[in-house]
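Input chain follows. Return C-alpha cells only.
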Amino acid sequence: MALAQRGHAVQRAREFSRETSLHFRLPALLLPASLAGPADTESLPEELAGIAVFLPNEETTTLAEAAAAEAARTDARRQEVESIQSEINDRVYAAYGFGPADRAAIQQFYAAPSSSDEEEADEDEEDDSLAAGSPADTAFALWQWLMGAAFGRWDVRLALHPEQLPAPAGPFEALPAAPPGALRRPGSGKLVTNPSELVSEQDAEMGVTTPDYAVPVAWDGLLPLDADHPHDIVRQLRLLLTTLRPGTAAALETESRTLLASPRADLTGWLSEWLAKGGAGGFFARHLATYSRSKREAPLYWPLQAPGTSYVLWLYAPRLSRETLYAAINDYLEPRRTRARDELRQLTELLGGPAPANAREARQQEQRRELLTQLVAGLTQFIDHLSGVLENTGFQPHPDDGAVISACMLAELFALPAWRRKLEQHRAKLHAGDYDWSHLAHGLYPQRVREKARLDRSIAIAHGLEDLYEGPMTNLAGAAVEVEEEAENN
C-alpha cells in the first residue's frame, strides 16, 4: 500500500505546475521547490526509503533556471516511479511464486506491440505533463497564469504566500471541482465571481466588505488591449508581475521577450504586439494549443479583434453572457470609437490648414489619419457584429455547450485563421441542426428543437423536455421498456 500511495503522490506532483490539470497549484517559476513534490506525510517507510529519488530544492529566479529545475524534477520523478513499479512487480512475482522463466515470459508479452499501441502513443503525445517544458514553455506558462489571475481565475494570494496552498488530495479522495490554485472564497470551496466573495461569509456577516486582495481583477470578464485605457491588459499583467516579483520583474520580462517574441523586439511594445498577434507565435495560438486535447479545444481567453486593426478586447470565456457583450459595447468599444472619431476630426482639421514645414511631420500626420480611419471602421464593424448577435434574444451562451459552440457566433472577430474557420464550420452545423442538443441551439431555434425532442429522447432529456417525447421508451442499453397504460388499468 505504501508503495502505491507513494507512486500516486509522485505522479500527482507532476501535475502541480500544469495549468490544465485539476492538481495545478502555480506555474513553475512561482512554485517553491519545497511544494513541488510529494508532501512529507507521503514519504516511504524507512525500509523503502532507498527507492525515493532526491528532488532538487534550489529556488529559481529566472525562467531558464525554473525550466531546468522542472526538467530535473521530471527526471527524478520518472526514476522513482520506475523504481516503485519494479519493486511492486518483484513483490507480486514472489507472492505468486513466479520464477525467472515466468518473469521473462511476462516481460516479453508486455513488450510485444499490440493494436492499442498507436492509441497509447497518441495519448502520451497529448499529455504535456509527461515531459519537462523548455524555457519558452515556462515563460508562456507564467504569462498565461498572469492573464488568468487578471481575470480572477487564479489566486494571487497563493503566489504571494504559497504556504497557504491546500494540501494535495489523497489517492482515495474525490477530485476537486477546481484546481488548488483557483481563486476561492475564504472558508469555502466556492469559486469567486465577484469582489464581495473575496471575504469569507463570516467576515461579511460581521460587516467586512473591503477585500484584502493585492491586485485589481476584471470581474466583468473583459480587458482591452488599449494603452490609453486604465484597464489596459498590458498594464494589468505588468502590475501583477511587479507585485509578485518586485525585484526581478524587469529582468523576467526581458527574458520573456527573448523567449516568446524576439530579442530585437521593442521592450516597451513587445507585449502588446505579442498579445495582438493573430497568427502562429502569438499568445492565443499557444493558449489554444495548451487548452486542446483529444480533438477538444477549450480556450479560456478570447481575443476579439476589431477587423483591420490592432485593437483587441480580451474576453474571459467563463464570464460570457449577453450582459458581457453589452458591457463590451457600452464600456469599451463605443468609448474607444468616440475617442478615435474626436482625434480623427481634430487631425483632419489640422491637415486642412497650412501644411507643416517639416515633410516628415506631414507624412506622420497623414499616416496617423489613415490609422484612425481604419480604427473607426474596424470598431464600427466590431460593434455592429456584437449588436447583430444580441438582436437575437435566443442567444444565451451556456458553459456546458463548450468553447467552440459558444464562440461560433463571434467567429469573424477572431484573427487566428484556423480557429476562425473552425468556428464558421461549427456555426453552419449549429444552424443546420447538427447541434440541437446544445443550449445555444435551443435558444436560437426553440421550435425546431422542441419538434426534434418529440422523436429523439436524447434531445428531450438534454433540454428537460421529456414530457414532449412520443417515441418508444428504452433503457440505457437500448432495450424496450414496457409502459403501463393507465387507461387499461382503470
